[in-house]
Amino acid sequence: MPRTVDHTERRAQIAEALVRVAARDGLHAVTMRSVAAESGVSLRLVQYYFETKAQLLLGALRHLERQSRQRWSDRLAALPDPAPPRAFVEAFLDEALPTDAQSRVFHLVGTSYAVLAMTDPELAREPFVSDVDELGRQLTGALERARSHGQLAEGVDVATEVAHLLALNNGLGTSILIGQRAPSEAKAVLSAHLDRIFTG
Amino acid sequence: MPRTVDHTERRAQIAEALVRVAARDGLHAVTMRSVAAESGVSLRLVQYYFETKAQLLLGALRHLERQSRQRWSDRLAALPDPAPPRAFVEAFLDEALPTDAQSRVFHLVGTSYAVLAMTDPELAREPFVSDVDELGRQLTGALERARSHGQLAEGVDVATEVAHLLALNNGLGTSILIGQRAPSEAKAVLSAHLDRIFTG
DNA sequence: CACGTTATGATACGTCTGTATCAGATACGG
DNA sequence: CCGTATCTGATACAGACGTATCATAACGTG
């Protein structure tokens, strides 16, 4: 057997170059050539590991997704066990706000894909909506736990509140990225709202 | 004087063709040629009225903005005078949700521009943030009116609540456009929240 | 009718895109 | 050191893009 390279790792390296380009110049600036240049590799090699551009985009999306999932579980694992529901939800949502380079990239690329999905039904289910649904399930679990501990304010419907929190967090993230709100302002909005729906 | 044509009207006609293309196929599908075809006009004429693509995009954006402003004031004018604060705010926000073709287009193009603005500081102030700020001013006025009439719940900070409502509405609009929520669900979330911040 | 505005048509240029094809260089495991 | 996996380089292609440049047709006002 001759020279061997970890294909998965190479693909990850190229995917991260794609994410850097998208974060810096926008998703429209992502081309085979720009990704090759960013990752310090030949155009030919990008073709080698991702045959087409569609596969490149999809691969990078999945990579970004895995990475963020990891961040989430790391952060949530750092909470005391069992985590107080309010702290859990706040950490959960705060992690999704674009406050540092990593989460900024995640939100920007995520929103870029969402815009594509608005006019491309093919892309609509793949794999974003399902991912957001997964976040919704986790949030739902946290709120139900809060309710059973008597820490959820009366009149709060869990399903409605989950939809509310997801949409709010999304909108706050966008407002940060276009420079309309400072991250601290967004966090204040979120915190004030959590004060309303949690008791104590 | 020879043949005369209303340039403003022609530009509006072309701008509306652009908006239709953007709504159907996405902003990335907007090209000089596709806009010409959509408006049933020669490529040459698009160049005639908008010298460059940048001017075409800017002109169409302004056109869409004017149109939506008109829709807003029409709807708000249909309310009783003086409008009950809660009804005013609900109409105001509901109008921004993408529930029909017109508002769908507005939200889609708006989000597309927002994504561009995230990586293009040049585009960031022009003219979107300022436009959203204007909406914020109107909302602020409505909430202050509600407070002075004793219709705003205690513990509601007006500035924070305005930021909350704008972000929430934005996020709800996006969730509708990617097919994650039905318009009725989004309205229910909004209505439930307004129940919380308004008394009576 | 004549003149100038409005509009079309054909066509071209240079640039960028995704994709493809070729030969050949590099490096490591057996 | 041999062979094969890995990687590069040069180069090509057809298509789309924004922009530009012709000539010329249509048309309404004076």
Helices and strands, with pairings:
2 copies of one chain form a homodimer.
Chain A: H1 7-25, H2 32-38, H3 43-49, H4 53-77, H5 85-96, H6 101-119, H7 121-148, H8 158-177, H9 183-197
The structure holds a DNA duplex (30 and 30 nucleotides).
List keywords for this structure.
homodimer, 200 residues, mainly alpha, Arc Repressor Mutant, subunit A, Tetracycline Repressor, domain 2, 2 domains, 9 helices, 0% strand, DNA-binding
Task: Give an overview in words.
- 2 copies of one chain form a homodimer.
- Chain A is mainly alpha-helical.
- The first copy, chain A, folds into 2 domains: 1-51, Arc Repressor Mutant, subunit A; 53-197, Tetracycline Repressor, domain 2, CATH 1.10.357.10.
- Chain A is built from 9 helices and no strands.
- Chain A is elongated.
- The mean pLDDT of chain A is 91.
- The interface between A and B is large, with 48 and 49 residues.
- The first copy, chain A, binds a DNA duplex (30 and 30 nucleotides) through residues 1-5, 10, 31-33, 41-45, 47-48, 51-53.
